[in-house]
Amino acid sequence: MARRLRPGENPARPLAQRMRGLAAILESDPRAPPTWEAALVLLGSIQGELSQPGSGITRKSRGITSHLAGLGTKRRAKQLHQASAPGEPPAPDISELRRSFGLEVRAPFLRVGTPLPQAPALDRGAVIARTALRKDGTVTNYVIVIAPRPFMEPAYLKARPDMRIAAAVALEAMGERILVLGGD
User: Fold this and answer.
1) The CA-based dihedral angle spanning residues 88, 92, 93, 97, taken in that order and rounded to the nearest 10 degrees
2) Is residue 152 a contact partner of residue 89, using CB atoms and an 8 Å limit?
3) How many alpha carbons lie under 13 Å from residue 135 in its C-beta half-sphere?
4) How far apart are CA 98 and CA 89, in angstroms?
5) Among the residues of 70-151, which ranges form H helices?
6) Under DSSP, is residue 109 helix (H, G, I), strand (E, B) or coil?
7) What's the burial of 11, exposed, middle or buried (CB within 10 Å: 0-12/13-18/19+)?
8) pLDDT tens track for 140-149
9) Whole-angstrom distance, CA of residue 96 vs CA of residue 19
10) What is the pTM of this model?
């Protein structure tokens, strides 16, 4: 039950004090439910983006490395893989990128990300210079161009409304009532 305001009392003051208290909780603990719930929504959205089949060229799957084969995973070296076209999210082959995403707590932050070095190159595109030593002893220089296959920003844009709702529900569960507004 809301209490009645006294004459001359500023109605925004109690709300501002409660919001400062909530901000202090959220800044001090990255595992606070609102932060955690929003991060889980974003993680699910990223993994959803990385689960879409590709519409690019079809080629033989690169298979899996021998250290993964020993762990009981399916060998795919002879199967076909539908790659992604530039501009769409990377198509899953062995789903290494999708499985690598997770949550990392480094106070005062909660990070949604992947340790794989190829993730930024796939997301934003890259130009990589390489040098190869051939069997006959000659050295060959070549360049690999990776067209952008964005998945982080589209996943964030799709997840943003649900992240707000998840955070609001978690805040309400913490005992604070808030108003979820649309837009930024």
Assistant:
1) 110
2) no
3) 0
4) 11
5) 96-100, 118-124
6) strand
7) exposed
8) 999 989 899 9
9) 41
10) 0.69
Amino acid letter, 119: A
Whether residue 59 lies inside any domain: the answer is yes
Domain presence at residue 46? yes
Query: Which residues form the domain of 92?
Result: 28-114+151-173
Q: Where are the alpha helices (DSSP H) in 50-86?
A: 66-69
- Taking CA atoms, 156 is separated from 32, 142, 144, in Å, by 20, 35, 28
pLDDT at 184: 44
* Structure tokens belonging to residue 176: 């604070």
Residue 69 counted as domain residue: yes
Give residue-wise pLDDT tens across range 103-146.
888 777 788 899 998 899 999 999 989 999 989 999 999 998 98
End-to-end Cα separation, the chain, in angstroms: 30
Q: How many domains does the chain have?
A: 1
C-alpha–C-alpha distance, residues 114 and 155, integer Å: 14
In a domain, 22, yes or no: no
Q: How many residues does the chain have?
A: 184
Residues 6+ apart with CB under 8 A from 105: 30, 31, 111
**pLDDT for 1-58, tens place per residue?**
455 656 665 555 555 565 566 666 666 666 677 888 888 999 999 999 999 888 888 8
181 pLDDT more than 90: no
Sign of dihedral through CA atoms 144, 55, 160, 166? negative
